[in-house]
User: What shape does this take?
Amino acid sequence: MSALGDSENAPDASGSAGASGSVSAPAERLDRVLLNAARQGDAHGSEATAISVIEAGLQRHPEATDAEKLPLLVYLAELHERTGNHSLAPSVLDSVGALELDAEARQALAAELANADELRRGLKT
Assistant: This one.
Protein backbone atom coordinates (compact mmCIF):
# COMPACT_ATOMS: atom_id res chain seq x y z
CA MET A 1 0.00 0.00 0.00
CA SER A 2 2.95 2.34 -0.30
CA ALA A 3 2.41 5.76 -1.74
CA LEU A 4 5.39 5.55 -4.06
CA GLY A 5 3.67 3.43 -6.69
CA ASP A 6 0.33 5.14 -6.27
CA SER A 7 1.67 8.67 -6.63
CA GLU A 8 2.48 8.33 -10.32
CA ASN A 9 -1.22 8.76 -11.04
CA ALA A 10 -1.88 11.26 -8.27
CA PRO A 11 -2.66 14.25 -10.51
CA ASP A 12 -5.40 12.25 -12.23
CA ALA A 13 -6.69 10.83 -8.96
CA SER A 14 -6.66 14.08 -7.01
CA GLY A 15 -10.08 15.10 -8.20
CA SER A 16 -8.73 18.60 -8.76
CA ALA A 17 -8.52 18.82 -12.52
CA GLY A 18 -10.12 21.98 -13.75
CA ALA A 19 -12.18 22.56 -16.86
CA SER A 20 -9.00 22.88 -18.90
CA GLY A 21 -7.76 19.56 -17.54
CA SER A 22 -4.93 21.22 -15.64
CA VAL A 23 -4.23 20.39 -12.04
CA SER A 24 -4.38 23.20 -9.49
CA ALA A 25 -1.17 24.58 -8.00
CA PRO A 26 -1.93 23.25 -4.48
CA ALA A 27 -2.60 19.80 -5.96
CA GLU A 28 0.73 19.84 -7.78
CA ARG A 29 2.52 20.87 -4.59
CA LEU A 30 0.75 18.19 -2.57
CA ASP A 31 1.66 15.63 -5.23
CA ARG A 32 5.30 16.64 -4.73
CA VAL A 33 4.87 16.38 -0.96
CA LEU A 34 3.52 12.84 -1.40
CA LEU A 35 6.40 11.89 -3.70
CA ASN A 36 8.95 13.27 -1.23
CA ALA A 37 7.30 11.50 1.68
CA ALA A 38 7.17 8.23 -0.25
CA ARG A 39 10.83 8.57 -1.14
CA GLN A 40 11.68 8.98 2.54
CA GLY A 41 9.26 6.40 3.90
CA ASP A 42 9.45 3.68 1.29
CA ALA A 43 12.75 4.07 -0.53
CA HIS A 44 14.87 5.20 2.42
CA GLY A 45 12.95 3.51 5.23
CA SER A 46 12.64 6.74 7.21
CA GLU A 47 8.99 6.72 8.20
CA ALA A 48 9.51 9.46 10.80
CA THR A 49 10.88 11.80 8.14
CA ALA A 50 8.01 10.90 5.82
CA ILE A 51 5.52 11.75 8.57
CA SER A 52 7.20 15.12 9.07
CA VAL A 53 7.15 15.82 5.33
CA ILE A 54 3.41 15.11 5.10
CA GLU A 55 2.51 17.10 8.21
CA ALA A 56 4.55 20.09 7.02
CA GLY A 57 3.02 19.87 3.54
CA LEU A 58 -0.51 19.84 4.89
CA GLN A 59 0.26 22.83 7.11
CA ARG A 60 1.81 24.76 4.21
CA HIS A 61 -1.22 24.21 1.99
CA PRO A 62 -4.36 24.77 4.07
CA GLU A 63 -6.15 25.91 0.91
CA ALA A 64 -5.98 22.42 -0.56
CA THR A 65 -9.28 20.69 -1.14
CA ASP A 66 -10.30 17.61 0.79
CA ALA A 67 -9.79 15.54 -2.37
CA GLU A 68 -6.24 16.87 -2.65
CA LYS A 69 -5.51 16.06 1.01
CA LEU A 70 -6.89 12.52 0.93
CA PRO A 71 -3.86 10.66 -0.51
CA LEU A 72 -1.54 12.32 2.00
CA LEU A 73 -3.79 11.50 4.94
CA VAL A 74 -4.13 7.85 3.92
CA TYR A 75 -0.36 7.52 3.60
CA LEU A 76 0.09 9.34 6.91
CA ALA A 77 -2.20 6.81 8.61
CA GLU A 78 -0.22 3.98 7.04
CA LEU A 79 3.05 5.50 8.27
CA HIS A 80 1.70 5.84 11.81
CA GLU A 81 0.65 2.20 11.74
CA ARG A 82 4.03 1.09 10.38
CA THR A 83 5.85 3.00 13.12
CA GLY A 84 3.69 1.42 15.81
CA ASN A 85 1.82 4.60 16.65
CA HIS A 86 -1.49 2.81 16.99
CA SER A 87 -3.24 5.78 18.58
CA LEU A 88 -2.53 8.25 15.76
CA ALA A 89 -3.37 5.95 12.86
CA PRO A 90 -7.09 5.70 13.78
CA SER A 91 -7.20 9.44 14.42
CA VAL A 92 -5.88 10.17 10.93
CA LEU A 93 -8.34 7.65 9.46
CA ASP A 94 -11.14 9.47 11.29
CA SER A 95 -9.96 12.64 9.53
CA VAL A 96 -10.15 10.79 6.21
CA GLY A 97 -13.71 9.73 7.03
CA ALA A 98 -14.65 13.34 7.79
CA LEU A 99 -13.47 14.69 4.43
CA GLU A 100 -16.16 16.13 2.22
CA LEU A 101 -15.91 14.44 -1.16
CA ASP A 102 -18.45 14.63 -3.95
CA ALA A 103 -19.36 11.58 -6.01
CA GLU A 104 -16.83 12.43 -8.73
CA ALA A 105 -13.99 12.76 -6.22
CA ARG A 106 -15.02 9.53 -4.48
CA GLN A 107 -14.88 7.72 -7.82
CA ALA A 108 -11.51 9.27 -8.75
CA LEU A 109 -10.10 8.43 -5.30
CA ALA A 110 -11.66 4.98 -4.97
CA ALA A 111 -8.29 3.26 -4.60
CA GLU A 112 -7.22 5.63 -1.82
CA LEU A 113 -10.54 5.19 -0.02
CA ALA A 114 -10.17 1.41 -0.32
CA ASN A 115 -6.66 1.69 1.17
CA ALA A 116 -8.10 3.67 4.08
CA ASP A 117 -10.77 0.99 4.63
CA GLU A 118 -8.13 -1.75 4.53
CA LEU A 119 -5.99 0.10 7.07
CA ARG A 120 -9.00 0.57 9.36
CA ARG A 121 -9.86 -3.14 9.17
CA GLY A 122 -6.23 -4.00 9.94
CA LEU A 123 -6.31 -1.83 13.05
CA LYS A 124 -9.27 -3.76 14.44
CA THR A 125 -7.50 -7.12 14.30
